[in-house]
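Table S2 (continued). Query chain:
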Amino acid sequence: MRDFAIRLVSLLALIGCCVSASHAQNIVCGVNLSEIPGSIGGIGPGLNQNRNTITVTGPYFIRSSTVRFNPGEGIVVGNGGVLVLCGDDGPNELGGNFTPDWAGITVESGGTLIMQSTTLRGGRDYLIRARNGSDVTVLLSELVDGPGRYIQAEAGSRVEVVATTFRGVGTGTSPEQASYAFTSAIHAGDAELIVDACRFVDFPSDPDRDRGFDASSNNEGGPGRPHITLYASGGTLDLTRTTFRNITAGVGGRGGNGTSGASGANGENPVFGGAEDGGNGGTGRPGGVGGLGADATALYTFDLDNLFVAHNSFYNIRGGTGGDGGNGGSGGRGGDGADGGNTIVPFVDGGDGGDGGDGGAGGPGGRSGNGGFSEVFRITGPAGPTVIVNNTLTRIRAGEPGSAGFGGNGGSRGLGGDGGSGGFGADDGADGSNGSSGGTGSRGPFGDQSVPWAFVFVIPNPQQVFRANNNIIDFSSASDNGIAFQSLGSASGLIDISGNLVHNQATISTGTTLGLDTIVVGDPLIDGIVDFPIPPANSPAVDAGINALTPPSLMRDVLGRPRFADVLSAPNTGDNGGFPGLGIVDIGAVEAVGVTCPLDTNMDGRIEREDIIDAITGADFLDIAATLNNFEEGCGG
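Corresponding output:
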């Protein structure tokens, strides 16, 4: 029954045929609750409630309502329970800004969650936790400002997320959250995970959440918190048609300011005779080093049984900025010279005043923290097939170093002491000289700019070949020293990198790779204003891929347009050997269609069978005649 409900709601949601509860009794977003054992319970539509924990053991729905849970409370879906969250008749929201510490939804073994057109907000530990043997489907929904992990998919669970937006990872407030080594929107372990047509945007929305701590005096700033948008270890992952946009790791904390140098001691006044000089001020302490910027990774996988990644867009994946160095401490003030001794003895001169001490030098500024690394993919130890094909990676850049600390101000000078009074017929003592002001400390050195990577493979199994083909890899700047493909480990497997386009890279590949001679180097002429930018006809990505490396399941691009469209004005620089008679696939997630005409309904640049069917369906005689007359002719010539 659980599988039936999930498949039904998936089909209805994707074709836009969701059945309203107002049209059929006990049917909520396409799920017939009366077919599920147990008494039907639910909330809504149109309600606004504060709740303690809800335990679901049968069919239960929350429909087009606002439910805010008290701190530590949430929903538990037990064995045999089916929870349907549905926003088909108005907004449906759980959590809310007023209860950020709610416990989220836990789906126990044998439980099912079906969530459509619903917003989950806030959270202490997770927004959704799928335990062993649970089944979770999330459609057309939004997960906002959650804890460090929005969805936790545990061993033996099945989680499918479609057309859902994840926005603004927080840090959570529980001890479990505080122990996380990194934040992630989805964290899966030995689970079956499917992610399709989703958006991961603006992580984190508040950079201070993952910022390292600012240090106290003289100490190094804390490192930023790393961010991994999607983490999967064991199990399987299908990731398709999804956007990763503005993914940034935590900023390093500021180094502490140096403390001031000690003041020089004042000279002691003598009873008679010359006076003691003032002591020199101490040097200011150096400023603390800025904290390290954290590393940002869009997709991190470990020992997966199967990994398939296609038609995704990755834009502005950036490591955290290093922390600013602390300012150097001020130099200590020079001590004042003592006054010379007085005398009443005739013809005996007064004592000379002591010289003032020099001010201490300001301490040097602290070194700024290094920027964090950026990685779009880190693929570690795959146990099974790994295919990463026809993705678009743009504006990949590493974190920049912070600002170096400024040197401390020099200490002020000590004043010379007054000369003592001489006896009758004698001279007064000479006044002491003022000391010199201390010099300003030097500015601290700047930290290092880290290196951005597009792909990092850490593969201990030398028997496997892993594929990364027909991808656009566009680094933000040539000065970033980006590495397109890096293979780590003493026994790395073989990586097929055929058919990719790289731009602004310093290094195309390290380690053992296949297909280096098929790499296209050039500017793809796209930007990241939209999630899936279309390459212009003069882009070197057009008609430049390798058809045989595009799986048959990718016959249409991420925008639903046919792959293998031939742009007549573009040179055919790729290889169509896998699909003779077709155009050459473009590199990246989007296919350029070039010049089309009104009769070319599928926008592949030619008039063919599919266009005839569309013309007949439209029942327009002129369209049918024109289509037949131009059958298999290219548009625009």
